Amino acid sequence: MAIRVYRVWEGRNIFFIKWRLMFGPDARLLVITLLLIVVPIVIFCTTVARNLLHEFPTYNAGYVILVVTILFTIYVSLADSFSALLTVVLVLLFLTSACDPGIVPRNSHPPEEEIDSPKLQKDVVVNDFVIKVKYCDTCKIYRPPRCSHCRKCDNCVERFDHHCPWVGQCIGLRNYRYFFLLVSSSALLCIFIFAMSALNIKFVMNDHGTLWKAIKESLASVILMVYSFIFFWLVGGLTCFHLYLIGRNQTTHENYKQGNKQNVYDRGCFRNFREVFCTKTKSSRYNFRAYIQEEKPMRIAQEVKIDDEEGDGRTKVQARNS
Questions:
Q1: 282 — phi, psi (to 5°)?
Q2: 62 vs 43, 45, 65, CA distance in Å?
């Protein structure tokens, strides 16, 4: 009996709404990520922002602050996950978490050359440099350049950067830009919340005379300042690190393995940034609505199936006999 593609998958990914949403095996952590974003924003809007409305009655600047906060919240939340708790679809966390990160299709059987004369790796030419690509015993393929097998999801992912438990998904070729936008927007949001909370304490101190009295009167502002300060160093540091990686056209995985060795994918800072932010996201190679006509030795998952993508069209790759 024919089974739809999304019902059959050997990896550990989880699917929802039939074939439409695909997450990693640790998707439950998205709830924590969502709470870390939403809870401080709710506290800010109900305490600090409300107080600032009264401090700027003439020019309605307080309303501007409140609107900016809400827009920032929507923008950042949308970058990493989705939730029925929010009235707007969380597009960015959603795009990062609920899509195929660039999974390379598996083979049902090893390639003929692997059966005849098994090799663990072979040479390919990338941008006039010879590099070695490894054979994946799990996926039964020679991994394309910049591809790595994620042990958490049990998939080979094109341009694999890392597996992020906070978004419950691998970060790869198809969702890297959304991940970066999520992280950088979170850093900007932390700066905004910290600055507005400090401003609120200043206004309260003007009314009560001393800093100590202002702190007791606006304890929520102090908590938000500490919270945003701590998280700014986390997401701000991550933003700076990924700006460095983008400038070199390097992934986190490559940086960990290669360090400062020669990077064959570096095309210059400007072209590297353009490659990440100004190129069209490739379509998935899987049609989740298609039927599997022949029986395959794969387990039936809850709602688990994966998109996939092979090769990076931005990099010229040529096979070479080894």
A1: -70, 150
A2: 16, 11, 5
Residue 242, domain member (yes or no): yes
Q: Considering only the C-alpha atoms of the chain, give the largest distance between any 2 of them, rounded to a whole number of Å.
A: 84
Q: How many domains does the chain have?
A: 1
Each residue's pLDDT tens digit, 89-118: 355 777 788 888 888 888 877 776 665 556
Q: Whole domain around residue 54: which residue ranges? A: 3-103+162-305
Q: What is the pTM of this model?
A: 0.75
Catalytic residue status for 164: yes
Question: Cα dihedral sign for 36, 38, 39, 40?
Answer: positive
Concatenate the DSSP letters of all residues of 21-89 into one string: EEE-TTTTHHHHHHHHHHHHHHHIIIIIHHHHHHH-TTT-HHHHHHHHHHHHHHHHHTTT---TTSSS-
Contact predicate 212/126, CB 8 Å: no
Considering 99, 136, 164, 170, which one is annotated as catalytic? 164
Lowest mean pLDDT of 155-159, 194-198, 289-293, name the range: 289-293
